[in-house]
Amino acid sequence: MDKYLKFYIDGAWVDPIGGQRLAVIDPATEQPFAEIAMGTAADAERAILAARRAFASFSLTKHEERLALLERILDLLKQRNDEIGDMISREMGAPRRMARDEQAGIGVAHFAQTIRAMREFSFEYMQGTTRIVHEPVGVVGMITPWNWPMNQIACKVAPALATGCTMVLKPSEIAPVNAILFAEILHEAGVPKGVFNLVNGDGPTVGAMLASHPDIDMVSFTGSTRAGVSVAHAAAPTVKRVHQELGGKSPNIVLRSANLAAAVRAGVDKCFANSGQSCNAPTRLLVPAEDMDEAIGIARQAAEAVRVGAPCDPASEIGPVVSEAQFDKIQGLIRKGIDEGAELVVGGPDRPEHLSAGYYVRPTVFARVTNDMTIAREEIFGPVLCILGYGSEDEAADIANDTPYGLASYVQGEPAEARAFARRLRTGVVRLNDSAWDGAAPFGGYKQSGNGREYGKFGLHEFTEIKGIVGFGD
């Protein structure tokens, strides 16, 4: 508990320079359960300078040393997986089993995948008489969100360590304690002092310092598109690299060759997973217009079967959303959908009837939605599904692409048709026929969903600069 009020800087837990604190709220009870220190710009600078000093030596470490370091971290993550999962459940409301298996487990998966990618990655090779060298990009400022906290920490920190970068992490102040546990693991694994630094705080203070500081060579940000624009503006004067994974409004296209019942049920489940708090959630379900009535019936039955409850209840499939602010935003958008004439199939405003406290949202399905409605345009980030009808496949592609976002999309149908349709979609990721998550696949978006790619070898590329030593082979 004492570490909650400290920062991890230059290999030690240190007291903050300022005295501001923030309560960490359990969204299932609406009550505080912990308190963290909130960093100042001076705290952030102290961490940045520590990372800058450490870069001189860590950037020159051997591939084998960094690989061994990642393997030690992976072993410790496995040992403390359930502890991290239980904390994530407490912080952001995910059901405990899901928090352990998926929320914490995905951190383990990213380190394992990065280790595999690192073993295969060519950091140096000859091209004619030129030596091509992938060198660490430098000091990286990392700003991560609350919805999949360990996922985004791991998929940034693992490739940064693998490539020889040093870093300062600012996790979300809404779900910050899992990052403190993560820092303990890195310390125990023997990460050299100054290589990894952790400063809690808010975006306008610590986040802005990371984005604007001249000693930060790259900022890696995951969050809303609005916040991503602010980060890019702050980073522009120093011409640093900006990597962003931002918002989404992902379409899920059910082709006529698909099994409608299976596709709609899977679409509901994927949309509502993590209480709808995933940037790549398939929130726009596109079905053939002639199948709209049948799809509505299937979606209603699937949504009504979703069990909403306390994260500690083994029967709960989804828990609360993360905060009062998020709850209020979702409620406002549900009411907006009703006001704009979408057909409310199930759910609606307010909490589920059996829950009187906590930021719980009723699983909600709207049908006969048009793509100009607010609920089809804005990222709701809650368990709210919009069903839209289409005539031809050309119209389906037009509707799917008619969004400022381009993070993910989903296609259900006969495999050859689904593969062909995937090529028409302007998104960084396309998942076919309820396929499983692939930690080696590139993750990132087109358009206002960001730039750059994470995961596996693609993450390694993002954290390197490319140098050509011409005449090396003469």
UniProtKB/TrEMBL annotation:
The keyword Nucleotide-binding does not apply. Gene3D superfamilies: Aldehyde Dehydrogenase, Chain A, domain 1, Aldehyde Dehydrogenase, Chain A, domain 2. It catalyses: an aldehyde + NAD(+) + H2O = a carboxylate + NADH + 2 H(+). GO terms for molecular function: aldehyde dehydrogenase (NAD+) activity. It is an enzyme of class 1 (oxidoreductase). Residues 13-467 form the Aldehyde dehydrogenase domain. InterPro entries: Ald_DH/histidinol_DH, Ald_DH_C, Ald_DH_CS_CYS, Ald_DH_N, Aldehyde_DH_dom. Its EC number is 1.2.1.3. CDD domains: ALDH_CddD_SSP0762. Pfam families: Aldedh. Keywords: Oxidoreductase, Plasmid. The keyword Transport does not apply. Belongs to the aldehyde dehydrogenase family. This is aldehyde dehydrogenase (NAD(+)).
